[in-house]
């Protein structure tokens, strides 16, 4: 394909794997108020129209053809006069940052978009309309500039709820068309039950992002989740960073639930694939109440002792990796408590080497649990 307009700098890249070509718009050099991007362009790169050194003050509208399937986050940055963008109808991901576009008045996210994340809108934007097919929302990025409005849960919920495809059920924002949970609005309960209307637990549904952003001082960490039998799938990173989570109960049979291999990423009490989920057909637990945590502690101590004696300067993360494969419960805080108890109650000469950044025994030691009182 040949592009003849000299105002558009377009680079063509060929995939080494497939041999397919991608036409990337790298720069626009014109100064027209209405810019129509040539048909055949597949991607719009960062800072195509302006940058912080040379802001654009003439472009008011950009028309994008349906051949474009990818738009980078900073594609329209520093377009100071830009008011309107006609987005393509084949765009899947919407990750655009508008914080340097102060004149934007309306944003229309097309029906084709399924993923929306890391977006930032100016406070002057009067209208934001979205299509009804969004099944993935990423709420992990928040702008530091107080003059801009970022995708915070309440704000994004208001945007989505302007479309009847979305609703709030029991505190969860849900896409009714696809029956997917997107995210939760409230973080004040340690135990939650998903609504029956959900078939798919979407990415980031339970992500406790407030912990990183310090947006809420009264957040309650999630400890227990009950999943109704109507749910058939748990998506990638659905429970990411829920490191206080202790129990997940599925009211259906294990063969009816598809779980992503990274659904429980950064959950201290779970493997990444959530194999600890208790299903209707899970084996009954026969251990006596009150003993599980004590015996888990013993198992963790045995692993710590073995690794210190056989591995060179193991780290807490090394202990955690092994414990997660062999112990019911394990986390960095529990391992720190175990090491302290080994030092105090079992007289273990555990030291930390600041150079090697790992643990070692400063003198010969034999693990003897007769010193330890578990009951």
Summarize the model shown:
The chain is α/β, with parallel strands linked by helices. It contains 5 helices and 25 strands. A hairpin with a 4-residue loop joins strand 24 and strand 25.
Question: What do you see in this structure?
Answer:
By secondary structure, this protein is of the alpha/beta class. It folds into three domains: 1-163, Ribonuclease Inhibitor (Leucine-rich repeat, LRR (right-handed beta-alpha superhelix)); 179-284, no CATH class; 292-371, Winged helix-like DNA-binding domain superfamily/Winged helix DNA-binding domain (Arc Repressor Mutant, subunit A, Orthogonal Bundle). Helix content is 15%, strand content 23%. Strands 15-16-17-19-21-23 form a six-stranded mixed β-sheet, with helices on one face. A hairpin with a 6-residue loop joins strand 1 (8-14) and strand 2. The longest helix has 19 residues, at 292-310. Mean pLDDT is 85; it is low at 140-151, 210-216 and 286-292.
What labels would you give this structure?
5 helices, 15% helix, Leucine-rich repeat, LRR (right-handed beta-alpha superhelix), 23% strand, alpha/beta, four-stranded mixed beta sheet, Arc Repressor Mutant, subunit A, six-stranded mixed beta sheet, 375 residues, 3 domains
């Amino acid at each position: 394909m040949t592009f003849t307009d000299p105002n558009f700098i377009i680079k063509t890249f060929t995939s080494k794997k497939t041999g397919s070509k991608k036409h990337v718009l790298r720069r626009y050099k014109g100064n027209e108020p209405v810019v129509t991007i040539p048909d055949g362009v597949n991607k719009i790169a960062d800072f195509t129209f302006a940058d912080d050194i040379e802001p654009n003050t003439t472009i008011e509208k950009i028309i994008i053809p349906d051949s474009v399937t990818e738009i980078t986050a900073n594609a329209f940055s520093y377009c100071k006069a830009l008011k309107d963008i006609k987005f393509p109808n084949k765009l899947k991901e919407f990750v655009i940052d508008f914080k340097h576009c102060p004149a934007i008045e309306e944003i229309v996210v097309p029906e084709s978009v399924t993923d929306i994340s890391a977006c930032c809108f100016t406070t002057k934007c009067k209208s934001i309309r979205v299509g009804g097919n969004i099944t993935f929302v990423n709420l992990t990025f928040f702008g530091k500039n107080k003059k801009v409005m970022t995708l915070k849960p309440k704000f994004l919920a208001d945007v989505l709820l302007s479309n009847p495809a979305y609703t709030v059920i029991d505190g969860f924002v849900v896409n009714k068309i696809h029956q997917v949970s997107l995210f939760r609005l409230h973080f004040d309960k340690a135990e939650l039950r998903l609504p029956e209307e959900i078939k798919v637990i979407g990415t980031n549904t339970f992500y406790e992002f407030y912990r990183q952003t310090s947006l809420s001082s009264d957040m309650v960490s999630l400890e227990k989740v009950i999943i109704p039998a109507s749910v058939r799938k748990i998506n990638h990173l659905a429970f990411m960073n829920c490191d206080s989570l202790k129990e997940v109960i599925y009211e259906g049979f294990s063969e009816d639930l598809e779980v992503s291999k990274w659904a429980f990423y950064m959950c201290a009490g779970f493997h990444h694939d959530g194999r600890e989920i208790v299903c209707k057909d899970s084996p009954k637990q026969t251990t006596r109440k009150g003993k599980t945590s004590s015996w888990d502690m013993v198992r963790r101590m045995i692993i710590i002792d073995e690794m210190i004696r056989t591995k060179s300067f193991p780290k807490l993360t090394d202990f955690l990796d092994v414990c997660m494969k062999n112990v019911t419960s394990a986390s960095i805080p529990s391992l720190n408590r175990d090491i302290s108890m080994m030092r105090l109650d079992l007289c273990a000469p555990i030291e930390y080497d600041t150079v090697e950044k790992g643990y070692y025994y400063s003198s010969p030691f034999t693990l003897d649990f007769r010193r330890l009182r578990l009951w």
